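Title: [Solved] DUF1349 domain-containing protein 3D structure

Original question kept below for reference.
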Amino acid sequence: MDIALPELPFPLRPYGPDGDWSYEGGVLTGVAGARQDRFVTPTGEALDTPSDAPRLLGAPDGDFQLVARVTVGFKGAFDAGVLYVHVGERAWAKLCLEYSPDVPTVCTVVTRGHSDDCNSFTVDGSSVWFRVSRSGRAFAFHASPDGERWTFVRLFTLGDERETGAALVGFLAQAPTGEGCVVTYDRLEFRPGWPADLRDGS
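Solution (posted by the thread starter after getting help):
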């Protein structure tokens, strides 16, 4: 069933395990169950399909920026709230506020067949602002402590422009090792276009 958020010009649909998604008063809430994650290990173990976690995704048109403040009820190692980009079953990316493994950390995963895993910097507290942007075939991840001054985290692509133009974008909650966690997303904002400069803090 599609979910319409007033801040977004496109509907959202749940994917993967049940995330008990809800929206009230400008706050989107998702719940990860025990040992739910989305990751394709790069270390040699043969997996036919990625592991999975609750996702709520939609299909924006053209170039855009999706902004949200992410707050995670951390309980176990690698619990995370995520802004997520999906192009295909083995082509997707995560911008995570993750307990990695016992300190809140901004980290990213880009999956092209198999996943990579990169920690960027630690965060004070359980909240951070995230922004995912698209221009043509390119995606950019940014993070901010206040939604004003943005730190460039990653620039990447998941395929050609035909593929990335049909990308799904939205939200994911995960609890890879623990018994589950609750993630909230507020201060949601959708902006057309690409940031003027990826690295100047704007």
